[in-house]
Design a protein that fits this description.
single chain, about 375 residues, alpha+beta, 8 helices, about 40% helix, rod-shaped
Length: about 375
Amino acid sequence: MRNTLGALAAQGARSLLLLVLVIPFAARAANEGEIRNYIISISRLYESLDYELALNRIQLARQLPRGTEEELTLSLYEGIILCEMGKQGPGSASFRAALLLRPDVKLPVQVAPKVEALFESVRMQVKEEVAPLVEQHETKRLSNEAPSTPSPTKRVEKEKLRSTPEARSEVASTPQTSGMLGRMRVGVGGDLFFESSRMTGAWSINNSRKDESFDYSSLGFLSATAWLTTSMPKLSERLRVGAGLRIFGNYAAGGGRQFGFGLLNEAFATSEYGLPLAAKMEFLFGGRVGLSVLVPSSEFATEIRQLQVQGADVWNAPRMGWLLGLSGGARRQMSDRIWLRADVLAQLEQQYLFDTRQELSGIRFTKTWSTLPMRLGLTLGAEFAL
């Protein structure tokens, strides 16, 4: 019996020891696989000129445990992308971080001649800085092999060694921040638009009916839009979603029949997808859906008051509607945190004004009004990273 218990205990101990040895290797393998996936994604984004998203992936990869090889590759890609974006200073710093880890490292992809020249220039600087330190290390090693008297310069040498490759390699793994990488952006723009619209309306008393419909175009042609968007990397690295507000001010019909409706505003949800065109340009296409709110004033408010005097159950409350739009445009990056953009928007909107059906002193009264504008416009705006 004791022999059996002893054998079981020994077998359990061996199993536990095996788990202790295997689990760290499995975890390391999983991390290495994830890092490799990030590097593949970074390479593809770089090839498609999507530099902003490639930098974002580098920052995400640096949040994972990684080895020297992975850190080298991330630093080199970071330096290449920053240089392609015209940021030679930060790009040189990334190259320097990689070269301090391995002075003979090569770039992972073919680059422009100016980037190659900058990289080789940084390599020469690093080698010039490291050469005296290597000589000091060798001198110290030889002096340790044979007895010698303490040197008064040892303390100075030790202080110098603290600031070289090993210490600097820690800086290499520190993520660089850039306003480009912020997921949240706020934007403002001005809209120039024209519209073709129809007001569909009628009133009836018992069997008598009068058509009040008419076609019109907007008396105004300017509005202002503000929006807030965020990236959606879990769905697509080029997708942004958010919400916005569009303000028309006093909205009125122009042309042959002028009629003031009131203060018109829109609140909408928006999404957009960007495709890179050049180093700092991207093509955008998107859409929006939302609600419109009309606060009655002018002739429309007068119409409401006249019905109220006659006893109709109508209210001088904001009128609601819906909107649906599609857009296409382009966006250009001007700095780390600023983008300029232009969009063409086609939008359909319906506003409900009256839908009254009641009896007044035995008389059946009905009044229905709604507008259906089709707007086409150009928006010029700017976005700022938060």
